[in-house]
């Protein structure tokens, strides 16, 4: 099945043929190794990763296709993928997946799917390989179409759509998902359907299309209710539900979903638990319950387990909100830029919170005045003059207070709140009632005349 390494060629270029043609050999013999547990142990005992990789490649070169040899090769592939991932050799992982295609014809389709997905996962764990992952998934989609491996193709396409979404290739991802959802619904593969519907919800949310995002999430929940859903997938559903409710300003419901997601991820020791906790704290801050943040973080369940920059960032925001201090707020945004501004979900809500806090502080500062210099307000609030002037003009247009800006003098003139004359609403109500009476009399007269 696989070519035997020729000793002359080996001495000439120092490379292993077949599987190992791209790998420089450190220690090697002139032929493949037997597909036995002893060979795997030899690789495990190797002093250097390159030696272990060389040994595993040579095990895969073994032409034997007995049941035991295939089992050993499967284990060798798993070990080899782990080693290549640890060595950040993404291109070799991609090459390995291509070179294994003859081997896939000898093993069951379910095992093929497991190996393919594990190697793609290994590539994903290597930093800065997004483009390589997309290219690899497209190659595998073409291969699965040729080999008519529908089950595997659908899962690789779902992975490809996720990668395209992360790369902001939204139109291509949406087109791929639309055709995939129709196909999976016909086959009634509910577990895969839940994954795809969830992915569609995230994609529409990224496109700021909330109605479609909610519809896709509802479809995912409906499919999930008919089957057993793994805890990590249930946590993902809860997390997405919380994000959508928070977007609609329903922070109390969002908090309960984030809490459920945190419980699930915490039990699995999933790294997403800290993000669920972060969004829980965000909900508390957004409903002006910043004092509850310290209580949540002091609980035994959270304790020291989730201490880190994500939690510290939310502590800083909670402290700034409790103090009603824009200066502390901006300090938190500057000190924890990666955790706050680079997280699109947190950034969107904190922008709204910052505007609210700025409006409250400005209203409190201008309350004693009827005429005040904008520069003086900017000095009191410790913000640039142009920033304050722009915000004041916006507040006047939004009718947050009555006033006008005298830009020539650089002053803000505040008017007294106009008193509403009660006679106008009463007059309008009277006219409305007279209109109803006239309409009623017209209907009665029409009946009499008939």
UniProtKB/TrEMBL annotation:
SUPFAM superfamilies named in the record: TPR-like, Winged helix' DNA-binding domain
Transmembrane domains' residue ranges: none
Protein name per its UniProtKB record: PCI domain-containing protein
Gene3D superfamilies named in the record: 1.25.40.570
Taxonomy, superkingdom: Eukaryota
Domain PCI: 250-419
Pfam families (alphabetical): PCI, RPN6_C_helix, RPN6_N
UniProt keyword list: Proteasome
Cellular component, GO annotation: proteasome complex
Family (UniProt): Belongs to the proteasome subunit S9 family.
Organism annotation: Rhododendron griersonianum
Gene Ontology biological-process entries: protein catabolic process
């Amino acid at each position: 099945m696989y070519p035997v390494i020729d000793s002359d060629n080996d001495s000439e270029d120092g490379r292993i043929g077949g599987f190992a043609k791209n790998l420089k050999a450190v220690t090697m013999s002139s032929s493949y190794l037997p597909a036995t547990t002893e060979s795997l142990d030899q690789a495990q005992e190797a002093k250097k990763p390159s030696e272990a990789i060389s040994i595993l490649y040579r095990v895969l070169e073994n032409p034997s296709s007995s049941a035991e040899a295939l089992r050993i090769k499967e284990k060798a592939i798993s070990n080899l993928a782990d080693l290549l991932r640890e060595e950040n050799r993404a291109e070799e992982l991609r090459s390995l997946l291509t070179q294994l295609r003859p081997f896939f014809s000898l093993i069951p389709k379910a095992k093929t799917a497991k190996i393919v997905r594990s190697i793609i996962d290994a590539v994903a764990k290597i930093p800065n390989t997004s483009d390589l992952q997309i290219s690899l998934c497209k190659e595998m989609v073409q291969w699965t179409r040729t080999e008519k491996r529908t089950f595997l193709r659908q899962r690789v396409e779902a992975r490809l759509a996720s990668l395209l979404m992360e790369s902001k290739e939204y139109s291509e991802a949406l087109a791929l998902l639309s055709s995939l959802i129709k196909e999976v619904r016909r086959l009634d593969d509910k577990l895969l359907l839940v994954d795809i519907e969830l992915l569609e919800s995230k994609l529409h949310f990224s496109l700021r299309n909330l109605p479609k995002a909610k519809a896709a999430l509802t479809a995912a929940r409906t499919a999930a209710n008919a089957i057993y859903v793994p805890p990590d997938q249930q946590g993902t559903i809860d997390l997405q539900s919380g994000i959508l409710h928070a977007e609609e300003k329903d922070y109390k419901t969002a908090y309960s979903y984030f809490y459920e997601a945190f419980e699930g991820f915490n039990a699995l020791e999933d790294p997403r638990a800290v993000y669920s906790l972060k969004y829980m704290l965000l909900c508390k801050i957004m409903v002006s319950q910043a004092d509850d943040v310290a209580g949540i973080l002091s609980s035994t369940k959270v304790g020291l387990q989730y201490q880190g920059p994500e939690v510290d960032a939310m502590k800083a925001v909670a402290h700034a909100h409790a103090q009603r201090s824009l200066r502390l707020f901006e300090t938190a945004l500057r000190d924890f830029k990666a955790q706050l501004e680079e997280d699109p979900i947190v950034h969107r809500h904190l922008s709204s919170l910052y505007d609210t806090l700025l409006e409250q502080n400005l209203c409190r500062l201008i309350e004693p005045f009827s005429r005040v210099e904008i520069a003086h307000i900017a000095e009191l609030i410790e913000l640039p003059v142009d920033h304050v002037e722009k915000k004041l003009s916006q507040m006047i247009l939004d009718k947050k207070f009555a006033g006008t800006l005298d830009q020539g003098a650089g002053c803000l003139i505040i008017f007294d709140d106009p008193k509403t004359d009660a006679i106008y609403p009463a007059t309008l109500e009277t006219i409305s009632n007279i209109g109803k009476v006239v309409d009623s009399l017209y209907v009665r007269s029409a009946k009499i005349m008939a």
